Amino acid sequence: MDLYIKLFALFIIYSFVGWIIEVLFVFYDTKKLVNRGFLVGPLLPIYGCGSLLMAIFLSRYSNQIITLFVMAVFICSILEYFTSYIMEKLFKLRWWDYSDKRFQINGRVCLENAFLFGILGLLMVLFINPFFNNLLDMIPIMILRIVVGIVFVLFLIDLIVSFYVIKKFGNVAKSVNKDNTAEITKKVREYFIKKGGLYERITKAFDFEASERLIKDVASKAINTVNKAKDTAISKAQETKKSIEAEYKKTIEKLNKEIEEAKKLRDKKINNIEK
Q: Is it the case that residue 198 has pLDDT exceeding 70?
């Protein structure tokens, strides 16, 4: 039983980490925050499933880097393809679409992502999974059971509600041949706000527009800090350059002076020999 508790805890952790990765990737491309995935909450179960599959079945290849990379590509690509296919058949919607990318299959998987899956597999088996395993081992089993139990109930509620809402709004999408995540997120948010009460409070608390403004502000400050650091570095480099040039000039002058003195001494010795 404790093994399953630990596996579910890892599933939730990796689902959350995957959600963060997806949101950041989309924000980098579109400069907008989109609640990626099927669930209302900040979880992407496909990442949780993929990570667990790699952790369970690929750990034996930890000393065979190339085999581990290839197996991670294979497992994750198969999982991504069939997840996309099943969800499209269920809801007539797509949560991702790679039709505009080269080397893709039906817009469900692409070579670029497959390569990233391989890298992720290496990181997962060699570093990430051992780290979280050790972290969970440090938590008293009773506390872990309670926390996992609460999270499981919340996850189950989210799963049921998300299924119901998205099934209900399945006809709002203009086409299944595109990524409908942003549209789905908007409709789910509108639905919960209209419901009022606790639904509205939770939905507004999970405010992506406010988060987007915050991230843009943080990003702007980070860019300004980087620019200031760059200007300071350039200024110091220029000062260092001037200092080095001055030292170089002094050294050259000193060498020239010593050479002249050596020449005079040589000429003097030659004259003495001739006499």
A: no
Q: What is the phi/psi pair of residue 109, to 5°?
A: -135, 155
Token representation of residue 260: 């002249």
Q: In this predicted structure, what is the pLDDT of residue 14?
A: 96
Average pLDDT over residues 71-81: 95
Mean pLDDT computed over 70-87: 93
Q: Is the dihedral of CA 198, 204, 207, 210 positive or negative?
A: negative
List, for residues 207-217, the tens digit of each pLDDT value: 445 445 545 66
Over residues 215-239, the mean pLDDT reads: 75
Whether the full predicted model's pTM is greater than 0.90, yes or no, is no
At 91 the three-state DSSP class reads helix
Contact status, residue 184 vs residue 166, Cβ threshold 8 Å: yes
Rounded distance between C-alpha atoms, residue 107 and residue 85, angstroms: 10
Beta bridge partners of 110: 104
What type of residue is 156? L
3-class DSSP state of 64? coil
Q: Strand, helix or coil at 206?
A: coil
User: How many other CB atoms are there within 10 angstroms of residue 240's CB atom?
Assistant: 10
Residue 249 exposed, middle or buried by CB count within 10 Å (0-12, 13-18, 19+): exposed
> What is the spatial distance between Cα 81 and Cα 73, in angstroms, rounded to a whole number?
12
Are 18 and 11 in contact by the 8 Å Cβ rule? The answer is: no
